[in-house]
Structures are given as C-alpha cells and as structure tokens.
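Section 3.1 - Work completed
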Amino acid sequence: MRVVRQSELVAANLLIEFIQQKRIFENGVLKTYFIDTYHEKKMNVPPTIGSPSILTLQTGTKALEGLIAGVSKGILVTGFNGGNCNSSTGDFSYGMEGFLIEKGELTIPISEMNLTGNMFTLWHSLVETGNDPRLSSSWRIPSLVFEGVNFSGI
C-alpha cells in the first residue's frame, strides 16, 4: 500500500484531462476493443489499448436515495463477499450483503446471499444510473439499477 500525497492527486487529475478518451460503447453499440501488442500481432489488427486506465460510466440524474425511492421491491447491494465470473461464458456468482427495499424504502439488512446470472444478459437489464460515481479508484461507476437480477439465500 502506498500513501498518496494530495499534490499527487491534483497532478493525476490534471493529467487525466489531457489523455485521449475512447468510448467503448456508445448508444448500446460496441465502438472499440481492448487490443494489446500481443493480440495485435496474433490478430493482425492495430492495437488500441491493453486495458483502460480509467473506466467511466455515464451518470444519471438521481442520487442513490432517488433510485431507491423508485424501486417497489428489490435489494440494495452494499458489498461483495467474494465470488467468481467465467470470462468465456459470462456466468457469475457473487456473495453479497445489503438491504431489502420495499415500497421505495430500505427495510431490513441482508447478508450471506448470492447474486447469480450472466454478465452479458445483466448489462441488458440496466435501467438507470445514479449521479454518484465513486471517485476512489480508476473506475468511475455510479449506483446502478438492474431489473430481473437473481438473488438466492433470502
């Protein structure tokens, strides 16, 4: 673990403004692939980038409280407790904890449940994004609302 000085954070934020942004998806259409130098040679295509340095998802207009208020029955996932994802098939299973949502309000805490499904179909069920991206990592992902997600262990 490395302690980062405030001046380094400011410098990093300034640098980000000068880095060319590439859209991965635009209006639901795939615009680019992550092609590193190894796969460039193997596939005989020009390289793009091996992986993103900062991945962002377009934010919505509602705060987390507004997203919760719009859910009649659901689960707010607040943390994951391990799990796995098959990168070939997209199948996943993650342990999670959170709160039950009933009539737009958080009711009871839940834990030791599993969230299961397929990544390819999960992203098709995204219905809303929040206006609250986490700024603590290289991913800038806001709160997300999905429909039809599979939970077990209630």
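Second construct:
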Amino acid sequence: MSKYEKLIKDLDYYMNLPYEIIVRKLSADEGGGYFASYKDFPYIMGDGKSEAEAIADVKKAFAFVVEVDLAEGKTIKEPKQKTDKFFKCN
C-alpha cells in the first residue's frame, strides 16, 4: 500500500464500504435477541434485542478493529465487488 493510499483509506473509508453483515435471530436457549457478524470478518460479532441493535453493535466492534489495524499498519480486507456480469473464457 502506497503512502498516498494510506492517507485516503481511513476509518471513514472502511466504514462506508459495502461489507455484508449477517444477522440471525437467537433462540431462547441462546438468550434471545439477535446476533450479527461480518461475512468477511466472522470473528467480529455483535448482538442486541433487535436487528438494528445487533447491527449497530457489530459496526461498533468493526470500527474498533479497523482503528487498531490502521494504527498498526495492517492491511484491511475490502469486500469483493459484486457484479451481475459473467464472462465466458475459451
């Protein structure tokens, strides 16, 4: 990563990328509420009484991880671009 890219790719940059968040309802045995995680970062998790709370919680955890990784100069995985185009190669 170039010095220029490091200046551009700050916390705001990563928070606005289209990462996929997976949300699931927890059973009563699991404590109820909702659980959320990032598809690309399954170790970053959040929970809440509602889907919105779980998403807000996991985003807060993601922001913390990104801040630490940026401070340590680590490379942060970006989401793959989704495309509806398919190409056939011969």
